[in-house]
Amino acid sequence: MIRKQIIATSGVDRQNQQLSIEVLAENAKAFSAETAVTRMSINHDCTLLPIGKILSGSLKQLDSGDVALEVLIDDFADSFVPFKGPNGESLYFAESSYDSRPFIDFQSETLKKLNIMINPLNFTQDDYNDIVAYLCNCCDAQVETTIAKSLLPTPEIVFNFVTGYLLGALCKQTLSKTNDKLSNDISDDLAKCYTAIKSAIKKIMQKITSRGQVVYIFTEPNQPIELVVKAKKVDTVLKALEALKEYDISQKVQQFNYYTNGNLKKIQFIYDENEFKWEMNYLTTNTGQVIGTKANYKRTIQMYHSVLESPTAGFSIGGTATMESQEE
């Protein structure tokens, strides 16, 4: 289903923020890029299946005098069909009938230090400034500000690993239960990276205003793997990282890459806190296809129809506007 939707304006929004016409124009240009597209999602929940594509963007003059960013959306939420996965499991598949570009992901450029992305709306201004200083100075991290435009955005923290620190390598290692460090066969640099992540999570959890779940995302530039943990406590995140040693991420990636004829773009794994294990959640391909588990499909469609009937919930776009925050 093709439709148009205004997603931002130059006026002051409910969070007392305002986007300039220049920023709106830049986003309109980005949404019309030839190489990749932004996903349409629900309430900024990265674990739900992408349910559409932003095909293009343009500026529109409103009667109020403000300028709006209007996008052309291909909504394919009702186009998912069931089929069998590589091991006979039930999966669901959908794709755009109009566009074959892949979806945009967080990072593509090479990183030389740990990159952490946070949303300032999840903190008081003083706490946000304190966190940025701590992450830069104590965790040796590069910090970027993400923008999730919703009234009460779910806290989402993204950890982008240093290029070359393959998540697969982290997944195969064992955490020492005695000294809470990575085992001796891991390089010192990787051990320092893990220590920095642990320190960053503890600091963020101390300052974050939300008392609900926080979404932690672990990625590496130019790698298809995305690991997601939803947790209220620091220990849950650390247990999730430790549990990776029991789940062969690399084997799953190879299996689904073969299953998609070498077209795997991204594959997301999510940690099940109740079962203490990792599970494949969904994947996308280089031609813009979306493949997800039956459980994720049911949850996505339920949320989709809830949004259609709700005056407060809403659809969201999956692109993340960022700007670097650095301590001098």
Structure description:
An eleven-stranded mixed β-sheet has the order 5-6-14-13-12-11-10-9-7-8-16. A five-stranded antiparallel β-sheet has the order 1-4-3-2-15. It is α+β, with helices and mostly antiparallel strands. The model is unreliable at 173-186 and 319-328 (pLDDT under 50). It has helices spanning 21-31, 125-138, 167-171, 188-207, 234-243, 249-259, 294-309; strands at residues 2-9, 38-42, 52-61, 67-75, 81-84, 90-94, 115-118, 142-147, 156-160, 214-219, 225-231, 264-272, 277-285, 290-293, 315-317, 321-325. It has two domains: 2-77 and 305-317, no CATH class; 115-287, no CATH class. It is globular and about 55 Å long. Helix content is 27%, strand content 30%.
